[in-house]
Amino acid sequence: MSIDWLSVLVTAAVVVLLVLVFVGITPVLSTAFQFLVLPFHAFINHYRHAAPYWPRVAVIVPAWNEGIVLGASIDRLLQLDYPADRLRIYVVDDASTDDTPEVVEAKAIAYPGRVFHLRRDKGGEGKAHTLNHGIARVLSEPWAEAILIMDADVIFAFDSLRKMTRHLADPKVGAVTAYIAEGSRDRNFVTRFVAIEYVMAQLASRRAQNVLGAIACLAGGAQLHSRENLEGIGGRIPTGTLAEDTMATFESQLRGKRMVFEPHALVLAEEPRTIDALWRQRLRWARGNVQVTKHYRKLWFRRSPVHNLGSISFGVVWFSVLLLPAMMTLAAIGLLLLLIFRSELADIVFRVMWIWAACVYLYSVIYAVQLDWRTGLRSWREAILFPGVGSLLLMLVALFPGLLEELLLRPFDLELTQLGRVGWVIVIYIWGPLAMLGAWAARVLERSRIGRVFSPALLYLVGYGSLLCAITVDSYIKEWRRADATWIKTEKVGRVLG
Amino acid sequence: MTEITRADVADGQRDVRSDAKLERRLIPKALIAIAIVIVIAVVRELLLR
Predict the structure, then answer these.
(1) Is residue B32 part of a domain?
(2) pTM of the model
(3) Does B3 touch chain A (CB under 8 A)?
(4) Residue B7 falls within a domain, yes or no?
(5) Does residue A495 have a pLDDT over 70?
(6) Which residues of chain B are within 8 Å of residue A35 when distances are taken between CB atoms?
(7) Buried/exposed A128-152: b ≥16 CB within 10 Å, e otherwise
(8) Residues of chain B found within 8 Å of residue A165, distances taken between Cβ atoms
(9) Per-residue pLDDT for A291 more than 80?
(10) Which of A27, A238, A409, A447 could form a disulfide with A320 if both were Cys (CB 3.0 to 4.6 A apart)?
């Protein structure tokens, strides 16, 4: 009996391509997994171990040219629903050149013993260095029992600190983070997308991480550490990467401390309102994540009795974000090559993939909007269009084959030619990478006066997720080229609602 | 140092219980989301028939 080697080869190639496509849908599976784990937070949470607890809290506010936002932030901190003599504010002025020193000095005089001005003469080394200056001072005195690290522009809800400290009543907990919500007065399309992203990434994903027992990152704008925890990681925030908050989170968990996300502690933050500003901020975060992944390369997918960072579930969640653009590109390549070998199979795989994506999108968006109705109602367009008009159309194409032809071509008695059909199929198969290019183009367009008119429409077309993917690709390139990793601060102008 | 009163502690305990109770709403919210997805899937099947 002779073996048809050609068909064996083709079958093997098809199997490999199917694996590529499957790898490509891993991020969708990961999202589904997190949103399916989320309801378990109803029972698997830290509330049964939480108790009323008011430790002496030293708040460390890193500030570089934050004069415009700092006064309101300090005032707000002093008004928190927390015993006044158990709360001290240390503003670490990172060699500011604006009126930051005057603003802090005025507050220090107005609130003696409660507000302290720490000045660094040499600044610009990054947030971790600035924080460490303040942490060194706070830990040199026995007063503080807990240390709250925050950003100068964020506004804490009155009860948020109290809601965070109650978890520190459990000595197993090393640190607690809050829900950072987008809180600008004058919202635009970028801040509304960010608001929805934060609902999904924090109120949904971080709750899921609470259930899984491993937290990826304590938000840099609201990290409450027990003194013991901070001393345990060396009494300083790890420097050397662009993700100082993630490093601190990992280091704490590696020492067996539990991290808790408190969804009911609300902190409002000002977020970038242009694609370019968002790109620069997120590039820093994405590069930080690449650095963290490399730094902890021996940790992934290795179980430990001390922490859950090495669990399969956490690894899948982490790498689904980190490798999302690579996975999307693999899926596109897989589909394109399947089109050559087995076009009918490619069509089935494409439809299964996008029907699955549609189900996960619907479930996650409907769920997310219910988690924060205010943000959901305010940003309903961005919630619906989060994956982009293009991806929504692909979901429709997958769900209702022939619908677009029926709606767009049939009324005009038009029909796609064979070539047109092939071109259309190629476009929809490689939509993921195309959308990333579109997101990059939206950033470029935004720089010109005329382009600025079209860039929002382009972002709605390609989706916010594609923008984040494009930024991740940029982070791969910058890290590979070892590009300058100077810590660039996101500019804040005090737009947060009080 | 401010004296923490029994009333403060009782308030704090109530707050913990209340937030724990709020978390239980995650289940009906998930069910609503799943139900909507199922309804859409059924409508699709009916439309495609």
Answers:
(1) yes
(2) 0.92
(3) no
(4) no
(5) no
(6) 30
(7) bbbbbbbbebbbeeeebbbbbbbbb
(8) none
(9) yes
(10) A27
